[in-house]
Every structure is written in C-alpha cells, then in structure tokens.
Amino acid sequence: MEEGNRLNRPVLRFLLVPQLTVLSLNMCPRLVIKAVADIIAVRCKNLSSLDIRGCCRIPADSLVDLVKALPSLAQLNLSDTQCNAQVLAAVGSHCRQLLELDVVDCSRLSPECLLHLAYDPATGSLRSPALKVLRARYLMGRPLLQCMVQHLVFLLLALRSLTILDHPFVLEAVCAIYRRQFDNVPVAPEFPSLEELARRRMSTHNGHGLTLTLTELDDVALSCLPAALAVCPHLADVTLILEGNPGFGQDFAPWRHISCLTLDNDSQCDVADLLPMAAALGPQLHSLSLSGFLCEDASSFWTFLGHCLNLRKLVANLPPPAVCAPDGDDDDDDEEMIEDLEENFSPVPHQFPHLRYIFLMYPDSEGPLPSQHKAVFRACLVSLLRHSPQLESLLLACLPFSLDSVFEQVLEPPATALTHLQKLSLMETRVSGSTIHLLLSSENQLSFIDVPACSRIFRADYDEFLRRVRSEGFDMEISWE
C-alpha cells in the first residue's frame, strides 16, 4: 500500500478485511499504529505474508499480540520495528509455519535476543521448526565477536530447517561448528550449552555427522571453503573471496550442488586461471558473477563462458589488462582497425538458451586497450548476444569500443536476436543515437532504455527518442542523465 493523498488511517482500516492473505504496509509506516495492529490481529487471521518493516510506531507488546493472532504466517518482515526478545519468542512459539523472517535493523534486538526465536527456556523445546530464511543484520550494540559467534552457532544448531542465515558473521559460526568449538557452559542464562545442543542435534542425524541445511553463504575465503562445504554439503549459492595466489585444486566433487557462484578477486588472478574450475562446474551453474579478474587474453573469457552454457544470469566486472596500447591508439579512428581485426577472429559459437540477464563492465581507465584486445572482446560480445535468444536484461558499462557496430551485427537480418529484450542500459558507452533508433525499429519487448553519460548522445538525440516513443505509442521509459 502506498502512502498518498487518498490513503489515511480510516481508509486503511477499511481495507483490512478477512479475505487478505498478503499484506504489505512498508510504504505507509506513519499510518500504522497500535490500533491498526490490533485490527489486523482481529480481522486478518488468514494472512500468510505480512510486511510491516519501518512501522516503528507499533509497541512491542502489540507486536506480540499480533504475531500470536496470525499462526498461518509463512513470511514476516519486522525490520526496523520495536521487535524485541518477547516478540521473537511469540513468533517462535505461535508461527510454526513461518518460513521467512526479517529482523534487519531492529534497534531493540541483540544477537542474544535471537536465541528466543529458536529455543523455549520454559519447556526446553526448540521453536520455529519450519523457518528457512532468517535475515538479522544491523542489530543493537556491538557484542564481542566470540559471544556473537556463539549465538549464531546456537541458531544454526537449533533451527534445523534453516537454509539462509543473513548475518555478517555466519561464516565464522560455520567454521566454529566445523572445529567443534562447543563450550560446556550455557550460552546464555536459561539456555543450554552449545555442546548439549550439538549432542541433541547429532542424535537426530543417525550417525551422519553434524551438518547443516544452509544453501547460501557470502564472503567465503577460498581457504575456508572446505570447512564450509563439510558442514554445509548442500551449498548452492556461494560468494568466494580470492586473495593472494588462489589454487582451486582438482577435486570439485564437494561443489556439486553449487549453481550460483560469485567470485570476487582481490589478487592478480586471471580469467584463464579459472578454466579448470569452469570445465568442472560450468554445466551446473545457473548464475555466475566475476569481479576483479584480469583478462590478458580476451579469448579466455569466451572459452570460460563456453563451459557455462546453462547460465541464466551473467555478471562480469573486469578490470583493464596490465598491458595498454601506446598513446594515440585509442582514437575513434581506430574503429576501422578494430573491425578489420575482428574479421580475423571468429569465436566458436556457443549457445546460451537460458540466459536472461547480462551485465558486462570492462573499462579502459588505466589507458587505451590494444586494438587486438578490443576486437576479440567485441567479437565475443556479438556472438554472446546473437546466441542468447531468451535475453531480457542487458546492461553494458564502460566498454572500450563502439557499440554501434555491435548492435548492427547482432540485429542484421535475418537474425532474430534480442526479441525478448525488455531492459537495456548502456552506461558510459560509445553508442550513438542511430543505434537507439535501430533498437526502436527492431522486434523486441523493450520497456526501459537507459543511456547515462554516453558521450555520443546529446540532448537533441534524447528529445528525438522521446518524440518517437510518443508518436509511435511505445510503452517505454527512456533515461538519459
């Protein structure tokens, strides 16, 4: 619900009817007070999803009453509210079908408060049996790291269905479980020790070891990955941080469930160094993000992609190569030279039948790239666009060559590329107005075009885009500045 001139508290109350199953009030937090929460608790007992993030005018005791009245909730967002330990205890005990909970930025919650979501000190029983996703960043205070990790270990051991725990120190907790760092003292007053909780969990694993159901981990150093995979054998979405001189080894069997892979490179690693990993994992990847990898041989990037034909999403932010062209080789006049070189390089056509999202950034901020480098990369881009028939979103930024000829080749009849394209962003690229008109004349589903900071597009071009969109009745937004 959006807050506007027509929406006030009486209207909001009128809209709160028993038939509601999904309710989001995050767009009108000022209207949501105790009285509104009380009405929701009485009238909207069929809710399966409730989003009241930012509704900080609801007192904690009213939040307790609210969640107690909504036992069918599967999704609950309490971010930036007065949520406290008592609210979490009520959630854990009464919302037993809850799958997703968001308590980000709750200033009255400490990491220790989260324990009440998972365990009932009065009965000694576990709570929140179905919870799969818990987002708990930016909570109250800054406890000692060791205490915070202990609390997270407790959550991971107690919440047996958890697949995602969004917290900056979850990896440290996973590694603590791997090392069996379980104290034999209560993790908090009235709560059991980690050792007792671990034994309790082990007793239900039928001798298969202490493993978790987590499927997603962020900011994992490569050196920590074996421990993470040992504790979380079903990891599917991983962000790896590569430092120094990373070595992947040859055994990728533990990676068998990973389908979404993000690689952040803080070293001098080249895309070519990733080829053995791509050969082993490429076919299973649905989402791939590369950031900071050198690409001294532009063709190695295409070879890498050739192993990843089942991608649905591709993100690549590549820094400029170490070797740049001599001064003066970056003039626009070298476009003809690039085209001549491009004719001598014909990339092996790879088919990407499922690819729907592409983001490519390849700046030449350190100096002009060699023409050969540009030609190879541009030829690869043309082939990528030609052979991604389901592409819906294309975002290109800071590419070091003209995109006019790229789109001319991609859209050259009888080609049928980009017919499903809906969103196009060409930030700081060398593209002219003629290419935008070519796209407007082509068969596609474009509803949004963004051309910010494009040096070859001027105000007159933008005005002409808008005039054409209006005159031809396109349902499209075009952004320039």
Automatic annotation (TrEMBL):
It comes from the Eukaryota. GO terms for cellular component: SCF ubiquitin ligase complex. One of its GO terms (biological process) is SCF-dependent proteasomal ubiquitin-dependent protein catabolic process. SUPFAM superfamilies: RNI-like. InterPro entries: Leu-rich_rpt_Cys-con_subtyp, LRR_dom_sf. This is Uncharacterized protein. It comes from Podarcis muralis.
